[in-house]
Design goal:
Largest sheet: 8 strands, antiparallel, barrel
Structural class: mainly beta
Order of helices and strands: HEEEEEEEEE
Distance between the termini: 44 Å
Oligomer: single chain
Number of strands: 9
Number of helices: 1
Strand content: over 45%
Shape: elongated
């Protein structure tokens, strides 16, 4: 029985490989990212990279990608006490290489539905803060610091899902949302996760 199953699996894999059509492409676009913990404002960034589209069936394909992605989070808070207003702004910026592997379903030629895992590698993270005071005392100061690798996790695993509109066989526009499942920082009780909305344009060669 095992030999029969192995033989059938081998025949199926050979059939899929022989029928698969592989095309390559490039894509780029806008990131709107945030952290899940106390960060409500979406931080703008960008992504760009390349992909391979492996078509297994007229309706099904697998699309692995390798992208650079600048993302992070931002927040702002204002408090007024006894005539003194203090506005504090903070943001985190990370530089990442991300590798999504998307399973794509194309029910009609112009529309593709996709979902799959994403593997991320954090190349570096920095924090920026700015405080402005007005009222009894007018003053402001800002600070920027690069975090050590021990402060944040270098690997990030997430799930992605999205839609793609195929303008023609070469050009597409897409929207994808990524839910991070790995905590951002190395703290033992950290519950801060990445979330990222990706909007962009792809070109298949």
């Amino acid at each position: 029985m095992k030999k029969l199953l192995f033989a059938l699996s081998a025949v199926l894999m050979m059939s899929l490989t022989s029928q698969a059509q592989v095309k390559f492409g490039a894509k780029a676009g806008l990131n709107l990212s945030r952290f899940t913990e106390n960060f409500e404002t979406m931080k703008p960034g960008f992504h760009a990279g390349i992909y391979a589209q492996v078509k297994l069936h007229p309706m099904f394909s697998i699309q692995p990608e390798v992208l650079y992605s600048m993302q992070g989070a931002t927040e702002e808070e204002t408090n007024t006490t006894l005539g003194q207003t203090i506005t504090a702004k903070g943001s985190a910026t990370s530089h990442n290489v991300i590798v999504p592997v998307m399973l794509q379903f194309t029910p009609i030629k112009s529309l593709t539905i996709e979902a799959g895992p994403q593997f991320g590698f954090n190349l570096g993270m920095s924090l920026y803060s700015e405080v402005t005071m007005s009222g009894l005392v007018d003053d402001s100061f800002e600070d920027s610091v690069d975090l050590d690798e021990d402060d944040y996790k270098m690997f990030d695993f997430g799930l992605a899902a999205g839609l793609k509109y195929n303008v023609n066989s070469n050009i597409n526009v897409y929207a994808r949302y990524v839910f991070g499942l790995t905590p951002v920082f190395e703290y033992a009780d950290d519950e801060t996760f990445n979330q990222n909305l990706m909007l962009g344009v792809g070109f298949t060669f």
